[in-house]
């Protein structure tokens, strides 16, 4: 096999071929490559948005809950967690399932009510761990001095474009008073100070009061129902489990956010499968395109191929020249495609993320996605170029020359 001869033939075929066909082929390969990366990246972005919602609004990165035989966690060990390298902040909550009621006309005839989860917060700690305070759509967030105020999610309030309005309080507003009956039968009346809306349905079905208020209701002090922990980076939570346990939480349950979100795992698998299927279709389309281009080129050059064989050029050299032609299209498509992705599409989505129900979705472009897309397109080009070249060069010299 003469590689230089193959390269020369491929070069001449490309240079002397139709410029329109060349541009169209490169354009198709570029779009095929962009499609491969875009599909994988957008589904990766959706999963990332779901994960961020759980971390920012529900679980932080790590959650500590009481031992199976206890109701509360003793907070005396809590300060030691802050000294673990990589821990950003912690927030302790009391959690209570309470009956929340709203009587719009104060006549007992049209009461809207439901059972929702109420959490207590130390306001400054909470702001460092979750993003609830940044999701207020009406009113304002709590202050540590508030004792008769409550902040509620839009799914509790109703009338805010939620998905569960039929289960809500019917459209309460900031300043309205609601009655809360806690699990220990203590009743309190609170003024709605704020309404928040995240893109997590579970978080939007919660309400918040201050830590001091909840301790007065429950008759406890310096305890918690859960402690959520924010770490410096996502994906490395397992490495903090043992240091946290050694800091004094020997019997408590310590779980990462991933262990608490079964939905994310199943959704991620579903999106990955869809991405693989669509990517495979795109790769096949690219391979078929190369096949057609090389096949047409071979048909138009049958006589030339016959003459080359007649003067002694090996079939393998001719086949390699067409494969090189296909690889050229793929390489140019990859270079143009990655340029479009990195310098046009990705910056656009960073500035203009998509507003999905699960969160603000941008492209999650990783090295693995780029590597797999590169390999897929190159394999499609090699197969699409080799098959018609192999079949086209199998004809006898006379059939090729005289057709």
Which short descriptors sum up this protein?
four-stranded antiparallel sheet; alpha+beta; single chain; six-stranded mixed barrel; 403 residues; 2 domains; 15 strands; elongated
Would you identify the regions where 5 or more consecutive residues have pLDDT less than 50? none
Separation of termini?
26 Å
**Helix and strand composition category:** alpha+beta
Strand content: 15-25%
Number of domains: 2
Helix count from the secondary structure assignment? 13
- Integer average pLDDT: 87
Strand order of the largest sheet: 4-5-10-7-9-8
Oligomer: single chain
Question: Can you put this structure into words, describing what you see?
Answer:
By secondary structure, this protein is of the alpha+beta class. It folds into two domains: 3-53 and 264-402, no CATH class; 59-256, no CATH class. It has helices at 3-16, 19-59, 78-81, 123-129, 154-157, 211-218, 238-246, 257-260, 262-300, 302-310, 315-351, 367-392, 397-402, and strands at 62-65, 73-74, 87-93, 95-103, 111-121, 136-139, 149-153, 177-181, 187-196, 206-210, 223-224, 226-231, 253-256, 354-356, 359-361. The strands form four sheets. The protein has a six-stranded mixed barrel with strand order 4-5-10-7-9-8. The chain has a four-stranded antiparallel β-sheet with strand order 3-12-1-13. A two-stranded antiparallel ribbon has the order 2-11. Helix 2 packs across helix 11.
Please write out the topology:
Blueprint: H1 3-16, H2 19-59, E1 62-65, E2 73-74, H3 78-81, E3 87-93, E4 95-103, E5 111-121, H4 123-129, E6 136-139, E7 149-153, H5 154-157, E8 177-181, E9 187-196, E10 206-210, H6 211-218, E11 223-224, E12 226-231, H7 238-246, E13 253-256, H8 257-260, H9 262-300, H10 302-310, H11 315-351, E14 354-356, E15 359-361, H12 367-392, H13 397-402
Parallel strand pairs: 5-10, 7-9
Antiparallel strand pairs: 1-12, 1-13, 2-11, 3-12, 4-5, 4-8, 6-9, 7-10, 8-9, 14-15
Helix pairs in contact: 1-11, 2-9, 2-11, 2-12, 9-12, 11-12
